[in-house]
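Ex. 9. Protein: Membrane protein.
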Amino acid sequence: MATLLHRLGLGSVRHKAIVMVVWLVALIGLGVGAATLSGTTVNTFEIPGQESTVALKLLRERFGAASAGASAQVVFEAPAGGKITDQANAAQVAATVEKLGKLPGVLSATNPLNPQAPTVSRDQSTAYSTVSYGVQNSEITVEEREALTAVVEEARSGGLTVEARGDATQESGADIGGTGEILGVVVALVVLAVTYGSLVLAGMNLLTALVGVAIGALGITTLSGFVDLQSTTPILAVMLGLAVGIDYALFIVTRHRQELRRGLPPAEAAALAVGTAGSAVVTAGLTVVIALAGLSVAGIPFLTEMGLAAAATIVVAVLVAITLLPAFLGALGMRALPKKARSHPAGAPVRDRGFFRGWAGMVTGRRVISLALAVIALAVIAIPFFSLRTTLIQKAADGSSAAKADAIIAERFGPGFAGPLLVLVDGSGAPAYAATVQQKVQTLPGVAVVAAPQPNQAQNAALITIIPTSGPEDAATLDLVHSIRDDVADGPDAKVYVTGTTAVSIDVSEKLDQALPRYLILVVGLAFILLVLVFRSLLVPVVGVLGFLLTIGAALGATVAVFQWGWLSALVNAQTTGPLLSLAPIIIVGILFGLAMDYQVFLVSRMHEAHAHGAAPRDAVVTGFKQAAPVVVAAATIMFSVFAGFVPEGNDTIKPIAFALAIGILFDAIVVRMILVPAAIALLGRSAWWLPRWLGWLPVVDVEGAALEREAPARRDTPDTVHAS
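Predicted structure tokens for Membrane protein:
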């Protein structure tokens, strides 16, 4: 692989103009495609084959689009001491309901004071109207939402408290390009400028990463016109693509400058950097791609789609790093070095990295204490992980109209009214059997209200609405769903389904919770095999895998403490606290796995190289650490700033994921790679690099391109190389 990448890098330098034009054409072409072919994203999560999903499809067929379309509940509350049924208040409610029913996209708006089907609280202080749309939430336009909001705001002028909640009020897209994200990019630019000592080189590094991200994002946007993509897919791809794109370029540019300092001409230095550091980049990128594509093991289509889209962005980032980046480096020439080093690069002084040498000496000198402190610290931070709860129901931001409506509903009607369950009785015998189902459900614990069955016009289905005594996120509601499914049997010519937003959330969350252990085993197994191949050792991979598990535990533990428990939530501008999004843990595991392996390979390979050259065990750790740690710290700082940039102003879906990735990178780079790994390898001594004889057949994976490095002096003076420079 190193030889092939060396040739690719040299070819990119020789034909730099063509390479740049090809990438520019790709960028423009996808930009045109995104502008003309893009579609809308969705934020509905369904799993084909699940009972709740099958029932939703049947619901649409039996009762029409309105039964399974998006809806909003407009809540009316009378002033303190008054009743919503008072003549003046009732007139205002009726006038507002009439306006709601005429809004664009609305199929119907129920009158809460209708004697036939009232939705009024027991104390008669509150009522709510259900506004039904004929399409899913993702298909409701911005203008239609604004029209609903305008009617609600106008209704408040009459003295009533009027708020709106429901999926029809929730925007389906994820915002990209806030000030937080821009700040993250600015921090990355500053770190690069400090690392290189050159603003031009830092800008080039950032530019190539942005090109890769733009191509990936535009490709996903274009794809949205052909398939339904989740609203979190583009933002996840941008966040991950930007972080790894900057880091991959950093690894290659750093190696390029090292080769220039050794006296190689720019063309050969760029080619050798692609062949050596580029090999590690390709290996790391492949690991991330496999981890993201491996999300398909969950068997959940929307998760598979998110993983593949993000993986495609990583592929683009790797291709940019090994083709476009060397082309830019070739054009930059000796300007990649500081001015003082350009005349005599071979004699240019190289910083001694005294801090990192001293740090490595301290950690390896007190390896038992260092190892114990690192493990204990991460283990303590991971404790909240065992209280992790997940849901698909997005809680409204504190202070929003939806949050106020939720609070009024819970207080006046009961918490279960915010997440009713729907029981669909389907079949020719459904209308007759539905009454039996209603009676059985009424006897179950956790049921507050069971509405009378509503048959459809064809008399082949009936719908029963159930109001639990608990909220949609409570464990008691989960138990009720299982009780209905276990205790209410199908009848003659009638099949019973439990569905609704709450049931869908429960089904998807359970499916994801079941998939997480399988996925964790997959990525841990992959990590172990990869590290065995790279380092031809058994104990070093064990250290790497255990460090990764501690990183995952600490990242998820901190995320639970902040976003579920509410600790220090104001610091991250968390609009709400509660269970995490169901798909968050498995996505966090996949991404952190790839990034952790990236740092592990880059750091430990230098230690392995020093050991192979005859250095004593502890000296090999110190030498390798001194060489690789500065780049790992810079890369982690950049990746942390990029991920953290999505936290302050990110939407409620992406914010916890971005926080977990940012804090996970911090724990992995600083605690695991800077303390735990060097301490553990120093403690193991020579046995760290032991490989049983019966595994001697394993192929040698030269991720650092050692063979190319040995051949460099011979190539340096060849006519072909001189011509290339």
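Check your answer against this statement. Residues 716-725 have pLDDT under 50 and may be disordered.
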